[in-house]
Amino acid sequence: MNSFPRSFTTGFVALLLGLGCRPPGKPSEADVELKPEQVRDFARLYNQNCAGCHGTDGKGNTALALANPIYLAIASDDIIRSATANGVRGSLMPPFSKSGGGTLTDEQIDILVREIRVRWAKPNEVLGANLPAYAAAEPGDAQRGSGAFAIFCAGCHGPEGKGTAKGSSIVDDSFLALVSNQNLRTTIIAGRPDLSHPDWRHYASDRAMTSQEVTDVVAWLVAQRKPNPGRPYASNEPFEKIN
User: Fold this and answer.
1) Bridge partners of 104?
2) Same domain, residue pair 112 and 193
3) Phi, psi of 192 (to 5 degrees)
4) Domain hosting residue 63, numbered range
């Protein structure tokens, strides 16, 4: 059989390339899998690193919702960036930055922080509200906190915090062992919309909690922690080796 002239073949290939076609077997940019550090898409970064705990679309799961306008109103970009990069000591939030043992670059963390605010912050929802501060300005008082708890929290969580039909126990050993002091404060202020938990404005019908009352309730909750949750007594002995 006669083959096509080389000039014809060369011209045909050039035409295909000019039309945006590619020779068989040659992958396009879309076909090439990105390396983890090359991912720049927010949805992909969020789904791979955040959605498991913070829920699809930031609506909350085992951890608080990030798509919560009140949380985003009290937590600055630096706070969110630090928590993402370095994790939160005393909680289940691990570090995600490469320098902290995670997999994300500084640029990827910046993308997450920026897009979380762009997509989910709603400043008008807290416009004019007297927001408590993200962090406590003064030490808390557990005795005062007991009184504040009775006013604002006992209706759902019970007079001792052990739970009712309307709300779970918040003095449970495992819960208090796994949650940080700051997370307690953040939850009291911002609420958990995914769990129908109100924010600081809606615990009582006549007024919102003050920032100091939030601080004092946290102090009372912290005072309920046991030093060795899950054990009947403290022990410094190492675990037995299994042969």
Assistant:
1) 97
2) no
3) -130, 85
4) 36-126
**Same domain (yes/no): 67, 112:** yes
Query: What three-state secondary structure class fits 62?
Result: coil
- Looking at 126, 153, 180, the residue that finishes a domain is 126
Task: List CB contacts of 155: < 8 A, sequence separation 6 or more.
Answer: 166, 203
3-state secondary structure of 44: helix
User: Are residues 110 and 177 located together in one domain of the fold?
Assistant: no
The answer to whether residues 119 and 170 belong to one domain is no
Cα distances (Å, whole numbers) of residue 11 to 1, 14, 16, 21, 104: 21, 5, 9, 14, 46
pLDDT digit string (tens) for 163-203? 999 999 999 998 998 899 999 999 999 999 999 999 999 99
Write the pLDDT tens digit of every residue in 159-169. 999 999 999 99
Residue 111 shares a structural domain with residue 146: no
Could you tell me the two tokens for 7?
């000039």
> H helices within 66-131, ranges in order?
69-74, 77-86, 106-120
Q: What is the pTM of this model?
A: 0.79
Residue 104: helix, strand or coil by DSSP? strand
Residue/partner pairs of 79-84 with CB below 8 Å, 24 or more apart = 79/134, 80/113, 80/116, 80/117, 81/109, 81/110, 81/113, 84/109, 84/112, 84/113
Residue identified by tokens 């960036």 is 81
Q: Which residue, 183, 170, 154, 161, is CA-closest to 91?
A: 183
What count of other Cβ atoms lies within 10 Å of the Cβ of residue 77? 13
